[in-house]
Amino acid sequence: MRRMSHSASALGRLGLTVVAALDALCYPLILVGASSAPHLTFAALRALVAGAVLAGVAIRLGRPIPREPRTWAYLALIGIGTISFGYLGMFRGAEFVSPGMATTITHVQPFIAALLAYPLLAERPTSHQVIGLMLGFVGVLVVAIPPWMGGRSSDFSLGFLYLVIAAIGVATGNVLTRKVAGNVDPIVATSAQCLFGFLPLSATAVVVEDPLAVVWSYSFVGSLLGLALVGTALARCLWFALLSRVPLHEGNAFTFLTPFIALGYGALFFGEDIETSTFLGLGVAALGILFVESDSARQRK
Q: Is position 250 within any domain?
């Protein structure tokens, strides 16, 4: 991988922080629109709008289209992992778990991705980076365990299961994204994965839901456009571009920032309480980010 200059690495860190902030918007926006549409239909519409808009942008800008069948196969797998399984777990899990907590649980995915990255990418994190990822994972557990042990454990357990499915799908998609990043235009790649991911979601929605039951209110349209254009199109394009410049474990370490931001959104917009365990767990996760980033900075010197 090409070594980044000091200014370029600072710009990369800023970009990764922006991705975390955009990602954190997703669960609050899902909560706003969830009462107006069946869950899988909502998820499929999000993928379709994002993919279609990006396809139009790619055509308008004349972006290069991949020629190799293998590249298209990877983009299809990324779409199924990140979009189909990721959105299935995300939209269903948000029904049972608060927005801030849902984002926290889903972001065990950096730890899962680290386990997959070595055999699939030959990216072996150093001992400091492993410690950092483990600290991030422990921080997530500190936040997630108290409500699981509380009185709403049955709903929380079901939501947790859906969110783990989302985490596994996103982790797999991120590993494959790192594999093809740099070889495909980010706009084309993001459009393709959204449209590939839309197909299983829409097919499942037709079977198990009534897609015509959508209530096209202003709040639903606003949440759909926010999810599709900001939380998907913009965030995924930026993420795809960044993964062509940084190792997966370094990029994924910054996703541990998302729960900080998401819980702040939850407190600000939904009146969610922030418990002492939340500060403790997110502090541990922040320490994990510092471990990963400081070791990566030493390697760049």
A: yes
Q: Looking at 97-111, 153-167, 218-232, which range is the least confident one? A: 97-111
3-state secondary structure of 184: strand
| DSSP-assigned states of every residue in 38-76 | -HHHHHHHHHHHHHHHHHHHHHHHTPPPP--HHHHHHHH
Domain extent for 23: 6-300
Any domain includes 197? yes
Instruction: Tell which residue, 66, 74, 298, has the closest CA to residue 175.
Output: 74
Residue 1 domain-assigned (yes or no) = no
pLDDT exceeds cutoff 80 at 291:
no
Name which residue leads in pLDDT, 78 or 128: 78
Domain count, the chain: 1
What is the band of 277 on the pLDDT scale with cuts at 50, 70, 90? confident
Name the pTM for this structure: 0.84
